[in-house]
Prior knowledge:
The protein is α+β, with helices and mostly antiparallel strands. It has a domain at 19-72. The protein has helices spanning 4-12, 59-70; strands spanning 17-28, 32-42, 50-56, 102-104. A four-stranded antiparallel β-sheet has the order 3-2-1-4.
Amino acid sequence: MASPEFATLWAAQDVALLVTREFRVYGNPAVGQIVYWCTTLAVTATPETYINVYTPADDISRERVEWLLAHPEAIPAPAHTLTGRWPRRASAPRRTRALAPFRHRP
């Protein structure tokens, strides 16, 4: 249950400033593609701070997220952890993000 103060702030929509809203698509090896609405909000008290809120964009994505939450063992671990400097040898693997977003603008 929300507090009365939160309910008042929420009704006034005086929580944060909307900066952007766009689609983001992530691939997950266990469930496939998940499409999110990414809403970026500016925190009015500290203008250099932003909050990204990811909301499933459709029913299929919502079901996939719910399945992943029910099966945390299926969420892949990071491919690697960097400590210190990355080696500069030609044989060193390239740094990549396991679940890099692909942005779609509506």
